[in-house]
Amino acid sequence: MRDYERYDYLYAAIKKRSSVRLKDCYGAFGWEVLSRAEDDRYDDVLNVAFRRPHAIEHKDELQLMQVYMESALNDLGKTERYAHKKTFFAVLGACLFTMGLIAAGICLLLFFNGTPSLICSVVAFSLAVSAAVTLGILSHKLYKREDEVAKEKAKRAIDEIGDICKRAAALTENDDA
Amino acid sequence: MRKEKITARRERGRSPDYRIVKIRTEGKVGVAKTVFIGVLILLQLALVITLYVGFIAAFRWYMLPAFILSLICCLHVLSSDKNGQEKAIWLLFLTVFYYFGFIAYIIASDKFFFGRAQKRYEKIYSRSAHLIPAYMPPEGVSPQVERDMKYLYEAGGFVPYRARSEYFPSGAKFFDDVIKELKKAEKFIFIEFFIISDGVLFNRVADILCRKAREGVEVRIIRDGFGSHGTLSGKNIRRLKEAGVKINCFNPLPLHFSFALNLRDHRKIVVIDGKTAYTGGCNLADEYINEKRMHGYWKDAGIRTEGAATDGFTLTFLRQWEFVTKKQENYSPYLGLSGEIEDGDAVVPYADGKDYSAAVAKGVYSNIMAGAGEKLYIMTPYFVPDEDTANLLARKALSGTDVRIVLPAVPDKPYVYSVSVDNAERLIPSGVKVYKMKHAFVHSKVVASEFCAAVGSVNIDLRSYYNQFENGVYTDDKKVMKAVFSDFANTFDVCEQITEQNSARKKFSHRLVTSLLRLFAPLM
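Predict the joint structure of the above. Result:
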């Protein structure tokens, strides 16, 4: 039985790997964990119920900041999930291109006779090898660059979350958060 | 058992959602509603086109008389007192769809779908007209405020009172105060909201209402048939009725299409014992107190008045109650229960709707805008003004007034938002400062100049100006003004200002869609 006269409640589905960080974050906003349970559908998700006094000071500011924090957290999740999106598509494209060249080379060898087809198939195989090597190197560079960008973005998001939590903690006088 | 549990757990996959945290109350109500409305509009459009094509094929001789009738309607539109935008849209409609345009024009006219209701309102208003006190020019107010107050009296019979008021910059603060006062009720409680929805807030309020009704306090509720459609369960309505609460619905949704669908009771009124009254932007639903997360942070505002000014709200509520119940009402026991507060500031509670011949709410806003000298601050969820209002804002900014408009950064209705932002951006070259509140949906309806402020349910859009039943409070209360400007200052801090530089050049497709959406501006 919830006591809505004295308390506000918050129900959140959170990623397990971030549960400790989130407990601290929400703690800064005056929320205390009431219960936590495994999600029925996903094994990386926890369902957590929080509670805080209804008549908490600076409630409006805290609610607004909490939305900022949740937005920053989800931006972080998005950055982590799609950190190497461009690399993925580049590698996929490179694989398709290389496979196309190899297939063309095999077709030339199997279905055409004579020196020109042999030369063309050798060219196709050579192109496939060089394309694989070149695109591999480019993809690796792209991966590294994307990794750096993602790390930078993640760092900014984490700093922002930390900053928001500090400001919230100052409002709730919950310094241990 | 343990093995089964482990197997079940193994079968669960990883969440495909990238979000680290998801608030469980986050709903997709807005999306569902938008899709629903979109499908409805498309279906109606498909029906209209089918009929149109069918008519042309079957009755070619019909084209000439239809064209002549539509032409006559065009002349009627031109000579009517509709606003410029509405006139232009009707002319376009009548010219393009001349085959049936004149029929649509006739059935969409106020006389056709609102004529009988209008007569009933007139009877109700004439019966209760003697209850409106005579106009007494308030003392110690600025000439601007005095003129505005005179306008309110002449336009709708709204008189100024000396009252004590308090402004609430959020729905949470507003409803905490409402609940505190509801607990003290001894005689009657009148509640009128556009949306009443099941949830934590409703349960908190309903518990008190049921208890009070059982104790003998008279409790009456009006909810709008569209806004509260599907949001308040039958179980909760029964619970209220069983406790003795009288609850009625304004303009319930009919099964057939009707232009009366567009007539909504958007008012927000709470009256307690004829001594305390509330209004503002908030409805009785969880999202308004940020209990439910729908569009980021929900920014809202409200105001409380104490003293004789409460009579203004009581009269507005009782007139609507009489209209809804179709039963003659005795107003006297509910009026004059609170005296003037001598040290209070001037307050005028006002209402607007099809029941008034003048567009009162638009008049109030226009007067505040026109009277502003140093500053003019506006907070509104939707910004679809008519040409007069847009030109007035541009002129004020050009003449040196600090005009600022705060809009949400998170839309609740993307189609209205697109037009709202476009309208606001068009004013930037004139010097109007446009702000978007980050990660928030601004639902406050506040217009303030250095002289006065209006807080209520009125959006700056054509629906609020011309179609809906609205209400608000006009005041020059110093305490309220200070709180309003403090709220604006705090809001500007968490806003992003849109400038000509950062308002990105829109794609052709976006501009085309926005232009098409403008055709539906009167419905927004």
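The two ends of chain A are 28 Å apart (CA to CA).
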